[in-house]
Amino acid sequence: MAAPPAMAVTEESQAWITESLAIRASEADMVTLDMSQRFRRDRSDDEQALFRVALDHRVARGVLIGGGIAYVEGRKEEEMRLFQQVTLNKGIWLARTRLEQRFFDTADEASWRLRQRVQASVPVDRDGRWTVVGAMEVFFHLNRARASDKSGLAVMRHQVGLRHAVSPAMDVQLLYMRQQNFRDRRPDAVAHVPWLTLSWKI
Predict the structure, then answer these.
(1) CA 94 to CA 62: how far, in whole Å?
(2) CA neighbours closer than 13 Å in the CB half-sphere of residue 69
(3) Are 56 and 87 in contact (CB under 8 A)?
(4) Is residue 157 within 8 Å of 136, Cβ to Cβ?
(5) How does strand 152-167 pair with strand 170-181?
(6) pTM above the 0.85 mark?
(7) What pLDDT, in 10s, does the model give residues 1-27?
(8) What was the pLDDT predicted at 95?
(9) DSSP readout, 47-85?
C-alpha cells in the first residue's frame, strides 16, 4: 500500500527583534512593556510591528495570573488585541495559557485565539549566566471572524536558543524559531526565524 503524499508547504525566512522592559510594581505584581519588529516578505504582509503591555500578579508560589493589551501594525491590516493569561513556573519549566480577543480593521467581529506554551530553560554554567532555552507553542482559533479564517489548530512554533545575563538588569537571547501556519485547501506556510530579544528589568 503506497504511503500518502507529503503535504506541500511554502517556506520563507524572516527576522524578528524584540525589546522588553519588566517593571516590578510590587512584591506580587510585574508590569511588562515590549515591542517587536518583524521583518517579513510581501506574501506575509511584509514588515510588522507589535506593541504590548501586560500586568501579571502572583497568586501563589509559581502561579501568575495576568492580562494586557497589544497593538499590531502591518501593511495590509491593523489589530488591537486584548489577552488574559495564566503562567506556571516550576524548576526549569514554564507553562503559559493565553486567551486572546483580536480586533482587526478588516473584520466586523472579534477573533478569539487560545495559545498554549511550554518552555524549558536549562542553565549551562555554574554562575547561571548562560541558559539553553527550548519551547513549543500552539495556537488554536476558536471562531471565524472572517470567511477566510481557519478554526482549530492554526499555528505551531518550535524554538531553541541561548540566553545570556549580561548584567543583573539585562538579558540577551537569540533563538531559532520554526513557525508553521496550517491552512485549509492551501499549502501550509513555514517560516524560519532568527529571533533576537533584549530584556531589561527594573
Answers:
(1) 9
(2) 3
(3) yes
(4) yes
(5) antiparallel
(6) yes
(7) 444 445 678 999 999 999 999 999 999
(8) 98
(9) -EEEEEEEEEEEEETTEEEEEEEEEEEESS-EEEEEEEE
